[in-house]
């Protein structure tokens, strides 16, 4: 059996790029009254969302930023090459720290799967927000995917089976380690068990500060965004709300408008 990439396993078990592109676009349009054509995927890893973005039309373009060479290598040699030749020219990847603004400006910038939680200091989160604001076009939007609720903070382990074409059934384990109530930092890890019985232990590990929605909104306003909204899950759709009922676990989006 040929070696299986941990990035493919991650994409199949964690990501839903088609849903993201369709949904976030609709919200961008209804909030700004403009179509988003250019997209920057921050913390892009294997760049699946950037590659999905350019499938929309020949006018759509995307840039993925990550400061690690290894996931970017996968992005450009696997995901980018699966696009049509014209689409391949509409997407690019760059090894860059997201704390640094890009020269090119974008209609929509996203930090998905809680990636901005790598910043533990308020000063760094503020710097990131300012850098995104600088990198947005007028009427641009910034989407941050945020998880929370008490169940996200307790030591726990969730397993699920994913079907990997040509490989078979792979077990994915999401492990939550001890939460520190003083620093509000917690460790998380993803492991995979392959059909051969071999484990890919700690295929991905995260050392995240668990930020509250309210403190992130305050930082975004301080950075200069003119408005922030919360998209909150209700049934199988997201709606803009200002208050919500207590949930043991939630995934919400903050949208910050330039
Ligand atoms: C959680 S993963 C990517 C998740 C992916 N965006 C998704 O939606 O599933 C985080 C990635 O962020 C990258 N990263 C972490 N800090 C970064 C920074 N300051 N600048 C750029 N990339 C960073 C890591 O190299 C890693 O590939």
Strand share of the residues? Answer: 35-45%
Poorly predicted sequence stretches spanning 5 or more consecutive residues: none
CATH top level assignment of the largest domain: Alpha Beta
SSE string? HHEHEHHEEHEEEEEHEEE
In helices, the fraction of residues equals: 25-40%
Structural class: alpha/beta
Q: How is the largest sheet built, in terms of strand order?
A: 3-2-1-4-5-12-10-11
Structure described in brief:
With 258 residues, the protein is of the alpha/beta class. It has helices spanning 6-14, 17-32, 48-53, 69-79, 85-90, 122-134, 213-223, and strands at 38-42, 61-66, 91-95, 106-111, 136-148, 156-164, 168-180, 185-193, 199-209, 227-234, 237-241, 250-257.
Description:
The chain has helices spanning 6-14, 17-32, 48-53, 69-79, 85-90, 122-134, 213-223; strands at 38-42, 61-66, 91-95, 106-111, 136-148, 156-164, 168-180, 185-193, 199-209, 227-234, 237-241, 250-257. It is an alpha/beta fold and 258 residues long. The N and C termini lie far apart (49 Å). The chain contains 7 helices and 12 strands. α6 packs across α7 (213-223). It has an 8-stranded mixed β-sheet with strand order 3-2-1-4-5-12-10-11. A 4-stranded antiparallel β-sheet has the order 6-7-8-9. 28% of the residues lie in helices and 38% in strands. The chain has 2 domains: 6-149 and 210-257, Vaccinia Virus protein VP39 (Rossmann fold), CATH 3.40.50.150; 150-209. Bound molecules: S-adenosylmethionine (SAM). S-adenosylmethionine binds next to β2.
């Amino acid at each position: 059996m040929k070696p299986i990439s941990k990035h493919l396993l991650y994409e199949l078990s964690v990501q839903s790029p088609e849903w993201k592109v369709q949904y976030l676009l609709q919200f961008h349009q209804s909030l700004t009254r403009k179509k988003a054509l250019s997209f920057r995927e921050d913390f892009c890893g294997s760049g699946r969302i950037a590659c999905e973005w350019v499938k929309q039309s020949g006018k759509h373009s995307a840039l993925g930023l990550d400061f690690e060479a290894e996931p970017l290598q996968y992005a450009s040699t696997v995901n980018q090459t699966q696009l049509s030749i014209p689409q391949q020219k509409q997407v690019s990847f760059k090894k860059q720290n997201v704390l640094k603004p890009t020269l090119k400006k974008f209609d929509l910038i996203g930090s998905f799967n809680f990636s901005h939680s790598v910043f533990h200091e308020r000063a760094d989160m503020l710097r990131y927000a300012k850098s995104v604001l600088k990198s947005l076009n007028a009427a641009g939007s910034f989407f941050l995917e945020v998880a929370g609720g008490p169940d996200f903070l307790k030591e726990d382990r969730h397993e699920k089976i994913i079907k990997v074409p040509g490989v078979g059934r792979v077990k994915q384990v999401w492990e939550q380690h001890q939460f520190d109530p003083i620093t509000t930092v917690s460790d998380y890890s993803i492991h995979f068990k392959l059909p051969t019985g071999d484990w890919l232990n700690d295929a991905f590990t995260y050392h995240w500060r668990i930020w509250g929605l309210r403190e992130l909104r305050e930082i975004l306003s301080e950075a200069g965004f003119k408005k922030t909204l919360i998209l909150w899950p209700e049934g199988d759709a997201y709606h803009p709300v200002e208050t919500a009922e207590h949930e043991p676990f939630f995934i919400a989006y903050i949208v910050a408008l330039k």
